[in-house]
Amino acid sequence: QVQLVESGGGLVQAGGSLRLSCAASGNIFELNLMAWYRQAPGKQRELVADITREGSTNYADSVQGRFTISRDNAKNTVYLQMNSLKPEDTAVYYCNAVASTYSNWSLMNYWGQGTQVTVSS
Q: What is the pLDDT of residue 14?
């Protein structure tokens, strides 16, 4: 099993910044694609950004130029630097990872418990 633990959420004013972290732990053999998703009240969960093990990134149009995803493979950690935050960025942010373990070499999808980000106007 792989556990994902997010941290760094909170309340910030519009225009401010936050940095989310997500640390993966467990019986990890390979940590492949890692991503951040978010879900606002009454809306579907959506992809914010993802990053391959090699560092290739992909962003939702709504956050392009404001958010930066990065990862530290040695620490099995992915980050999301969020700048110029807007009230519409308010959501629960979830860490996602595609990974295999020593007990199951098949790539599987794992989710963190989520961290609340609230941007006040």
A: 98
pLDDT at 100 over 90: yes
Confidence of residue 46 (pLDDT cuts 50, 70, 90): very high
| DSSP secondary structure, 2-40, as one string | EEEEEE--EEEETT--EEEEEEEEESEEEEEEEEEEEE-
CA distance 45 to 39: 4
| DSSP secondary structure, 32-96, as one string | EEEEEEEE-TTS--EEEEEE-TT--EEE-TTTTTTEEEEEETTTTEEEEEE-S--GGG-EEEEEE
Phi (first) and psi of residue 89, to 5 degrees:
-85, -5
